[in-house]
Specification:
The chain is an alpha+beta fold. Helices cover about 35% and strands about 10% of the residues. Helix 1 runs antiparallel to helix 2. The longest helix has 22 residues, at about 75-95.
Length: about 110
């Protein structure tokens, strides 16, 4: 059975990767919960890109008014989505067939 990860961004979290709880308790994952990027077999370039995107995602929330609208424009949302799509594709390519990465973004 391949290693399983979930891919999604969360406010206050510096990674978009999470162990899949359906294959065991996430807190027991050897990759951390959420996943520590340095524990995964990824290139430094991809680890940097995933970290950059997780950090960028934080700016999509108005931290002074979390219930309010996002400070991002529609184009910023679309641009982020394209960049995240590219990072997910690169992630799947780097990890290969021994890994299943489920896209859990809404």
């Amino acid at each position: 059975m391949p290693h399983q990860l979930r891919f999604f961004f969360e406010y206050g979290v510096d990674t978009p990767l999470w162990p899949d709880p359906s294959v065991g308790p996430g807190l027991d994952s050897p990759y951390g919960y959420p996943c520590v990027l340095e524990r995964l077999p990824l290139t430094a370039v991809l680890r940097g890109e995933l970290g950059r995107l997780a950090e960028l995602y934080q700016s999509s929330l108005d931290w002074d008014d979390p219930a309010g609208p996002s400070p991002w424009s529609g184009e910023q949302h679309a641009s982020f989505r394209r960049e995240a799509d590219g990072a997910l594709e690169a992630l799947r390519r780097e990890l290969g067939g021994d890994w299943c990465v489920e896209d859990r973004r809404g």
